[in-house]
């Protein structure tokens, strides 16, 4: 299949790109600069332009950002849209988080409808952020699934960067489903909704100081930052990046995935478990917490449950263990200087 993948320099996208190429697809990926394109190209020295090519899209928040990117020869049959800001180094929630997420999503869907009639499948990277209802807190009696949609409002979005991020993913996903309903395009969409994504970083794109947001805690644990107190875990549900990549590729390949959201999650984790896994497997990192170090456990009153059945049944996902994930993440961080 001829595929357009957006944001190819991202953590999740790099693994998705790798899997697309392994499955024999022909990929054009968008990146923000020629420098990033060159770095990715270096990792695949044997692939010709027919298998891997690049298109520069500097800012997905521009209305017409994807107008030219969706046109290709041979034409695209599928689009995987992963590019969206996921970091909290921002000054303006609307401009830095919400606009790129929403306009990026609607912009690419409009461009496909207008100029890429051969595209049949679009997979959009959404998030558990678009599922969770933060107003209900830990909600022990609830089981989250694809049925749930975060009811966050524009006003709540402006409260702090975390709300802003969650709103950006919620509004973007909603805009995608609305687009399909109203515009009745020639293609079907699927969304992939992962919670915290951990896993190996690709060495050619990262440095220890410049990691994707979700892997920072694994680095920080190994660096001894949790020695005196383990921070609160946050969402407590996770998935391995390689399983997320597989979800994207399978959602594109499997016809039954059309029109569905996929809550791709392995299940629970805690920051304490991450520390314990590092301690057990990498004795060289000395400053890890001990049994008596406070923090990092599960909430005492229990918490929401999760249902990942659809990802298993439709996409055939198996889900890697936390131990495999953390061990491989640490190994990958060692290649960038941990
Ligand atoms: P990364 O930060 O590694 O990737 C984000 C990608 O989006 C990068 O390629 C980035 O380019 C690109 N991007 C961001 N803003 C813009 C913009 N304005 N214009 C053009 N490109 C832009 O994070 P992840 O790989 O983790 O995130 C990928 C997707 O997965 C996002 O949609 C995110 O919301 C979603 N997600 C991630 C989770 C996680 O725990 N990691 C959990 C749930 C969902 P550049 O690096 O050049 O700025």
From TrEMBL:
For this entry, the protein name equals NADPH-dependent methylglyoxal reductase-like protein GRE2
User: SUPFAM superfamilies from the xrefs?
Assistant: NAD(P)-binding Rossmann-fold domains
Which keywords does this chain's UniProt record carry?
Answer: Oxidoreductase
Please tell me whether the keyword Oxidoreductase is annotated for this protein: yes
Q: Which InterPro entries does the record cross-reference, listed alphabetically?
A: Epimerase_deHydtase, NAD(P)-bd_dom_sf, NAD(P)_dehydrat-like
Ranges for domain NAD-dependent epimerase/dehydratase come to 3-258
The UniProt family comment states:
Belongs to the NAD(P)-dependent epimerase/dehydratase family. Dihydroflavonol-4-reductase subfamily.
Kindly list the GO molecular function terms attached to this UniProt entry.
oxidoreductase activity, acting on the CH-OH group of donors, NAD or NADP as acceptor
The domain of life is: Eukaryota
Mind telling me which PANTHER family this protein's record contains? NAD DEPENDENT EPIMERASE/DEHYDRATASE, STEROL-4-ALPHA-CARBOXYLATE 3-DEHYDROGENASE, DECARBOXYLATING
Tell me the classification of the organism that encodes this protein.
Eukaryota, Fungi, Dikarya, Ascomycota, Pezizomycotina
Q: Which organism is it from?
A: Glonium stellatum
